[in-house]
Amino acid sequence: MTPRHAFAATLAAVAAAAPAAAGTAHAAPADPAPKAVVIGIDGAMLDRIGEAGTPNLDALMAEGSTASALLPEDSPTLSGPSWSTIATGVWPAKHGVRGNELSPNDFDAYPDLLTRAERDDPGRATFAAATWAPLTSTASGGPVFSAEVDEAVAAPSGAGDDWTAERTAEHLAGGSADASFVQLDEVDAAGHEHGADSPRYTAALEEADRRVGEILAAIEERPQRAEEDWLVVVASDHGHLPGGGHGGSSDDERSVFVIARGGGIPAGAGAEASIADVAPTVLHHLGVPLGGDLDGSPISAGS
């Protein structure tokens, strides 16, 4: 077994033994260091998660805030526009992405959340990993996350979400790891191939949940975890038709959600939130000043 695979096996065992690794008690210092990770699950639908075996996502929802929403009617139900909104905190009218070809765009005027965090404090450790390559590479007019991000990686062709989750867990397990983003893609693939009503889609959600558990377990195993305040945000970019596919204007295709735990958000909190609120929520937690150019706003602890 290679060291990388041994690391992954250890994380999987921790995640299996303690779903979400979220109930671990830690003595919080007076001023814990703010940290954040955004976990994007492409094509995931909240109502289908409720029907699947997803203990890690269930724990995050129980311990934080959960919001179900519909994309605005003028926002395409496609990955390019929605991930750009999640990353930048503005809708397509500003960031300019209208399809899965990411160029043209206006990311210079509306940069991604990790780039904003870097510009506020270049000492922050920022990281992005994606299975869908345009988010973190030059494929299809990308990337969404700029070259100012300390490390941005895309899964090699055919590697899939296991590679992306493992690479993210390795990053989060050590170092400062101040602000991170990870995108998992295989739920979307199952939706396209089999439909949102299919057993294969449910199985893909359960696999995504396992990977979420590995990522969260890596955070909980950090030697300095007791001195940190971790905000975890999970979001989806669009839904799927029962028979598969998206890109239209039905409620199923426009279905998105945002889960936020940490950063003072109380357990079981309900919230009204859109995917445009993800970036402002993370930036606010990190202490990055919010400009008036953002469409979204931070999910408040009292929502």
Automatic annotation (TrEMBL):
Keywords of this entry: Signal
PROSITE patterns: TAT
Signal peptide range in chain numbering: 1-27
PANTHER family, per the entry: BIS(5'-ADENOSYL)-TRIPHOSPHATASE (PTHR10151:SF120), ECTONUCLEOTIDE PYROPHOSPHATASE/PHOSPHODIESTERASE (PTHR10151)
Keyword Iron-sulfur carried by entry: no
Protein name stated in the entry: Putative AlkP superfamily pyrophosphatase or phosphodiesterase
Organism: Nocardiopsis composta
Coiled coil: none
One example GO MF annotation: hydrolase activity
Entries under Pfam families matching the protein: Phosphodiest
